[in-house]
Design a protein that fits this description.
Strand order of the largest sheet: 5-4-1-6-7-8
Number of helices: 10
Oligomer: single chain
Shape: globular
Largest sheet: 6 strands, parallel
Helix content: 40-55%
Structural class: alpha/beta
Number of strands: 8
Number of domains: 2
CATH topology of the largest domain: Rossmann fold
Radius of gyration: 17 Å
Distance between the termini: 17 Å
CATH superfamily of the largest domain: HAD superfamily/HAD-like
Length: 221
């Protein structure tokens, strides 16, 4: 089984989610940069991302403030995703098909809630059971990344007993941490999204790739 992150890894939405997080914070009077949002929030469940950014900014009662901002953010993101250009990351659908021909399950997981994740895959024309085998979201589990709960749930759904047979691919440090915490046999960073190779290397993935097609070459090597 290969577990892929969505935005920035398999879905090209030009970092819209983090731009919307950033704008939500700015509109509420918080002085922060998009770079800070990406560094602290990338890959996380979005309320947790807001809380961690607010902690970094020294905000009092960050959890309460994050909950309020998260509600506003979700409404804005829903509207933005209706209109914004969204496409599969180059090579994503070919890689999915190649993996399925190899008998490998293709699972997406994400720090989005289920409603947002489904909005994205519907825009792309992806269907669970066709292009992908499974979709696990932050709202399906008690603990989101870097906890292993989403990958553990995917294991249960597909009857996989050995974590070391699983590959995790993602564009953020927290994706790599999630894969390590789940005991994945390979954790692979990809430079198409939130974090560059230097930042990804801080999490010590097994490999860093620069495009999804590199994954097939890596698995065959």
């Amino acid at each position: 089984m290969v577990v892929f992150d969505m935005a920035g890894t398999t879905v090209d939405e030009q970092n819209l989610v983090y731009k919307m997080l950033h704008q939500t914070l700015l509109d509420d009077g918080y002085d922060c940069s998009l770079e800070m949002v990406l560094a602290i929030g990338a890959g996380k469940e979005k309320k947790a991302a807001l809380k961690d950014i607010l902690i970094e900014l020294g905000v009092f009662a960050p959890q309460l403030t994050a909950a309020s901002l998260h509600s506003l953010f979700k409404e804005r993101l829903k509207e933005a995703y209706l209109l914004a250009p969204i496409s599969p990351m180059p090579g994503a659908e070919i890689v999915f098909a190649q993996l399925k021909l190899m008998g490998v399950k293709v699972v997406l997981n994400t720090g989005y809630d289920r409603a947002t994740a489904y909005q994205l895959i519907q825009r792309l024309g992806w269907v669970v059971g066709e292009q992908i085998d499974g979709l696990i979201t932050a709202s399906d589990v008690s603990l989101s990344r870097p906890a292993p709960d989403m990958i553990d749930l995917a294991k249960q759904q597909f009857g996989i007993e050995e974590s070391n047979t699983i590959v995790k691919v993602g564009d953020s440090i927290i994706d790599i941490e999630e894969g390590k915490n789940a005991g994945c046999g390979l954790t692979i960073g990809i430079t198409t999204g939130a974090h560059d190779a230097h930042m990804l290397q801080l999490a010590e993935p097994n490999h860093i790739i620069h495009q999804l097609s590199d994954l097939i070459l890596l698995l065959h090597s």
